[in-house]
Write a structure and sequence with these properties.
Layout: H1 20-25, E1 33-35, E2 38-42, E3 47-58, E4 61-72, E5 78-91, E6 94-104, E7 109-113, E8 117-120, E9 123-126, E10 129-133, E11 138-142, E12 145-147, H2 157-161
Antiparallel strand pairs: 1-3, 2-3, 3-4, 4-5, 5-6, 6-7, 6-8, 7-10, 8-9, 9-12, 10-11
Length: 163
């Protein structure tokens, strides 16, 4: 559902402080652009921590949070991304909210925890944990609560007559 393809952020992390015009023009690509108010980069432990007003953009997918941590392997390739505090993921009409989102890049798996919710138009899915498997396009929800909003104006006369 949500696709983040990360490029190497190695030692030359590109941090943009202002660029709404660029954000709107960005098409689906292999670039991940992350903006924030502050960045701590730990060279020894291969970890970058973005703080305050974090925004990650990849194509038409936008993730916002207050904190985001990216972990890198020995070749400085990111393998894990953790967003925390007021996480919101938008892609077209679809939106996800949670207190924490973990993206396991190699497994192409996104895990939402902390009162996760999915919104697609007027429909809502809530659960204890929501996991997206990007390759199979399957979503797994633990302890689901699903709310479907039916637009009765679009039903046929026969369907409207049914209780």
């Amino acid at each position: 559902m949500f696709r983040f393809i990360l490029i190497s952020l190695s030692l030359t992390l590109t941090i943009l402080s202002e660029s709404k015009a660029q954000e709107e023009k960005l098409e689906a690509s292999d670039e991940l652009i992350i903006t924030s108010r502050h960045l701590d980069y730990d060279y020894e432990n291969r970890r970058a921590v973005f703080h305050r007003e974090v925004k990650a953009i990849n194509g038409d997918t936008i993730l916002t949070s207050e904190k985001m941590t990216s972990f890198f392997d020995k070749e400085n390739q990111p393998y894990l991304l953790i967003a925390e505090e007021d996480v919101v993921i938008n892609r077209g009409q679809q939106q996800a909210k949670a207190h924490k989102a973990t993206y396991e890049i190699n497994q192409k798996k996104i895990i939402l925890r902390g009162q996760p919710e999915l919104f697609d138009g007027k429909n809502t899915i809530k659960g204890r944990v929501i996991t997206f498997f990007e390759e199979s396009r399957i979503t797994e929800v633990l302890d689901p609560e699903v709310i479907f909003k039916v637009d009765k104006s679009k039903l046929t006369k026969e369907e409207n007559a049914k209780p």
